[in-house]
C-alpha cells in the first residue's frame, strides 16, 4: 500500500488503484479538521483507514497543530491511541 499526499487529502493506493482516502482542511492557524475517511469495501478491516488517520496526525504534529475530527471513524481511531489522543483540540 502506498500513501499519497495531495493538498487537503491523503489517498491509499494499491497496484495503482485508490483503495481509501481521508480529507481534511485547516481551520485557522492551529487546527486541522478531518471531515471524511473512506475505504473501499474489500479493503475495510485491513488497517487502511487507520494508516490514513495516522498520516493526518503526523502532518498535524509536524505543523504543531491540533486535530478536530468531524469524521466519526477518525475520532474513534484517534481516541483509541494515546499518542494520537493528545493531538485532539480541547474544547
From TrEMBL:
This is N-acetyltransferase. Coiled coil: none annotated. One of its GO terms (molecular function) is acyltransferase activity, transferring groups other than amino-acyl groups. The lineage of its organism: Bacteria, Bacillati, Bacillota, Bacilli, Bacillales. The keyword Transferase applies. Signal peptide: none annotated. Residues 1-91, 2-89 form the N-acetyltransferase domain. It comes from Marinococcus halophilus. It holds the Pfam family Acetyltransf_CG. Keywords: Transferase.
Amino acid at each position: 500500500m502506498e500513501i499519497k499526499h495531495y493538498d487537503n487529502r491523503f489517498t491509499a493506493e494499491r497496484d495503482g488503484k485508490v483503495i481509501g482516502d481521508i480529507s481534511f482542511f485547516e481551520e485557522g492557524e492551529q487546527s486541522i479538521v478531518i471531515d471524511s475517511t473512506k475505504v473501499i469495501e474489500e479493503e475495510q478491516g485491513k488497517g487502511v483507514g487507520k494508516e490514513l488517520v495516522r498520516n493526518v496526525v503526523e502532518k498535524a504534529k509536524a505543523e504543531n497543530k491540533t486535530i478536530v475530527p468531524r469524521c466519526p471513524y477518525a475520532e474513534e481511531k484517534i481516541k483509541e491511541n494515546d499518542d494520537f489522543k493528545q493531538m485532539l483540540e480541547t474544547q
